[in-house]
Design brief:
mainly alpha, 0% strand, globular
């Protein structure tokens, strides 16, 4: 693999990890509420992706359809659950839950479509699910049930968004349209009953960074390097995102890296790797 490709891949994965870090930093310090963060993130992402499409000269590809609307709704569901989940979840914990939910949901879809797994796949699922149980620690009185369910829901929504985008002839244009539709729809979050809206300058800056840089540009970069990667390489490379998030959160946000998290990460990422490396399941 060329050094330039490795650099771009690392840059993309760091961008994905930064989304969790930015929203957690913003909500942990109460710089902004999750609804406002989601709105700023999606709208700024829509603007940047539209400008990118305009620069590429592919504006004609922006034709709305029922499939595009479905993609926008799943994108909105992902971003909304993602933000609200991070009210009580640490960045590393949330990223691990999100990643595991995405991968398991996509694999489950393949299974329901008729693709049967072998021993290694079932073993991988068992390891990943056991890691999720240990990670969430549902028998603890301090277990953040709602936030955990929201993050799992976010992962399922992102899996649906990814599955809807399979076979796209122009992934960047389709992503731009999804963001452009999801952005205006996100203003419906202002109507959430009992939710207190508040925004500070730094909170908005973090949301804009998440949307414009770590979402729009990172997704565009991912789609540019993805065709140059083997399917297994792309799947396994994503295993680093929760680990990057946890390490940086430990350094910058003073979030703990306990033995429960480490053991869970090994089980979850090891289990998913067993599925991803199998020749029977193509993640792309």
């Amino acid at each position: 693999m060329k050094a330039s490709l490795v650099f771009l891949l690392c840059l993309t994965l760091m961008g994905f990890a930064a989304n969790s870090l930015l929203v957690r930093a913003a909500l942990k310090s109460e710089l902004i509420d999750p609804a406002s963060f989601t709105i700023w993130r999606l709208c700024s992402g829509a603007v940047v992706l539209f400008l990118l499409v305009l620069w590429r000269g592919s504006v004609k590809q922006l034709s709305c359809s029922a499939a595009n609307l479905a993609s926008a709704l799943t994108l909105l569901a992902y971003a909304t659950c993602f933000s609200f989940a991070y009210i009580n979840l640490d960045a590393g914990l949330g990223a691990l839950l999100l990643f595991a939910s995405v991968q398991l949901a996509m694999s489950a879809f393949v299974w329901f479509k008729g693709q049967r797994f072998g021993l290694y796949e079932y073993l991988g699922f068992a390891l990943a699910l056991s890691g999720l149980v240990i990670l969430s620690n549902p028998f603890s009185l301090q277990f953040p049930l709602v936030s955990t369910l929201l993050m799992i829901g976010s992962g399922v929504a992102w899996a649906a968004y990814s599955l809807l985008g399979q076979g796209s002839k122009d992934a960047i244009s389709d992503s731009a349209l999804a963001f452009m539709l999801a952005g205006p729809l996100s203003f419906l979050l202002l109507l959430v009953p009992g939710h207190v809206l508040h925004s500070s300058q730094w909170g908005i800056i973090l949301a804009l960074a998440s949307g414009a840089v770590c979402s729009a540009l990172a997704y565009a970069l991912w789609y540019s390097v993805l065709p140059k990667l083997k399917a297994q390489t792309a799947a396994v490379a994503q295993l680093s995102v929760p680990l990057i998030t946890a390490v940086v959160a430990f350094i910058l946000l003073a979030e703990p890296l306990g033995w429960r998290f480490i053991i869970s990460a090994v089980l979850i990422l090891g289990g998913i790797a067993a599925v991803a490396l199998s020749k029977k399941v193509d993640k792309n």
